[in-house]
Write a structure and sequence with these properties.
With about 425 residues, this protein is mostly helical. It has 18 helices and four strands. It has one domain.
Length: about 425
């Protein structure tokens, strides 16, 4: 114990081994639902479900160990919003194969790394007003919730309309029960509510005939074979240079804002912000995310972020790399869950998506709605992300409308050059796609 104290500087940070390990348990069980949600997304693109689950656990463990090496109290794992971007924007909307999409993610990680260690970081952060960042997060929340409702059958698409699903269907009924169970657990502030909800819903699925026992319960790393070194860097130009630039820039922006928001949230929960309200040395969390996101696709994992659920462990007193290292060990141990992953139906993970979307939509409260010149681009961003089924299109419309309103109302000098450049890039993309 004394050795751990010296290695991780526990005394200097006002914490103990017990507090760090308990914080790891709390955060892991709060964020462990991502182990099952990630493959439920990515398997829709043709990726192997069990392989993605294993890759998620391994990439999360490696990310946590990296964070520990940097002395940071931030756990790393794939983010739900970025998973949605990968599946529904890169693959389904833009038309990239999952191998090419992994390459786009890796390039975005490299771009984010450059941003995180240069003055570009401040330029990127300041190129959009806080209200627009909140709108992007809220729009992602609406998108994730919509996906959860459609996947569960609670809502169905028919004739160009969204309608209430068949409530008599076993899958839909199970999803509704799962939503109620998880919602009640969250209302009671039960730690690990989403993970417990997924497990409980899966168990209820057996008498309803929705959950099925997999044919084999043996653990095999062979599922990873098709994912190892799978990014297709040579094929990413197949759709053209401009779509590639658009994909990388948009994904990098989402990664940047998602990471920054999580860092501020967790640092605030643990009273880790400096006297001026800044992140101080904890800003290195952006570098950790960038490195992990660049490398994770090489083993078949999507982009890595900082889950806000990690605030639970930090709020309980975790402060050092011991906390993140212990969480990494738990993610490694979670690979043993791979054989039973096939038991979990989509109806069990969909409620988690709806509730995560609910939490993210709360960011809309931070938008300055009384300023129409700012509120309109924010509103368009929010609604266009779910309505177009594309994060890129939502952000593109938001940027273009924000720049156009600023130009017409004489506020063009208040708009940073980076914002003009990004708006122009989206205009060119839409013009070329219409030809």
């Amino acid at each position: 114990m004394n050795a751990l104290g010296r290695i991780f500087h526990l005394t200097e940070n006002g914490t103990t081994v017990r507090r760090e390990l308990l914080g790891a348990l709390t955060s892991f069980f709060s964020a462990a639902y991502i182990i099952f949600v990630t493959p439920s997304y990515l398997s829709q693109t043709g990726m192997d479900y069990t392989g993605v689950l294993l890759a998620t656990c391994l990439a999360s463990a490696a990310g946590c160990f990296l964070s520990a090496a940097l002395g940071l109290p931030f756990i790393l794992s794939p983010g739900v919003g970025l998973n949605a971007f990968f599946t529904y924007t890169l693959c389904f909307t833009m038309g990239y194969t999952w191998q090419q999409a992994l390459a786009v993610v890796s390039l975005s990680g490299v771009a984010f790394l450059i941003i995180s260690v240069t003055p570009l970081r401040d330029m990127m952060v300041s190129c959009i007003p806080p209200s627009m960042k909140s709108a992007i997060s809220a729009g992602l929340g609406m998108f994730i919730a919509l996906i959860g409702l459609l996947n569960s059958g609670i809502v169905r698409a028919e004739g160009g309309r969204l309608l209430l699903g068949d409530m008599s269907a076993s899958t839909t009924l199970l999803a509704v029960l799962g939503l109620l169970i998880t919602g009640v657990l969250m209302a009671w502030k039960v730690k690990g509510a989403m993970l417990i909800g997924i497990v409980a819903t899966t168990l209820l699925g057996f008498p309803l005939g929705v959950s099925q026992v997999p044919e084999t319960m043996s653990l095999s790393l062979a599922a990873l074979e098709s994912l190892l070194l799978a990014p297709d860097f040579g094929g990413i130009f197949s759709l053209g240079v401009l779509p590639l630039v658009t994909a990388v820039v948009t994904f990098t922006m989402c990664l940047c804002f998602d990471t920054l928001g999580a860092l501020i949230c967790i640092a605030g929960a643990g009273d880790l912000l400096d006297e001026s309200g800044g992140l101080g040395r904890h800003s290195r969390g952006m570098t950790a995310v960038a490195l992990a996101s660049a490398a994770a696709p090489l083993i078949g994992a999507p982009s890595i972020g900082i889950p806000v659920e990690g605030s639970t462990g930090v709020a309980d007193g975790a402060r050092t790399g011991l906390y993140t290292a212990a969480t990494g060990v738990l993610f490694l141990a979670a690979t043993l869950l791979a054989p039973i992953a096939g038991v979990i139906p989509g109806a069990a993970t969909s409620p988690a998506l709806v509730l995560i979307g609910m939490l993210m939509i709360g960011n809309a409260a931070n938008i300055y709605w009384h300023n129409v010149g700012l509120a309109l681009p924010c509103f368009l961003t929010m609604i266009m992300i779910p309505f177009t089924y594309s994060v890129a299109d939502g952000i593109g419309v938001g940027f273009i409308s924000y720049a156009a309103i600023a130009l017409v109302t004489g506020r063009r000098k208040k708009v940073p050059p980076v914002t003009w450049a990004l708006a122009a890039m989206f205009v060119v993309m839409y013009v070329l796609s219409a030809l």
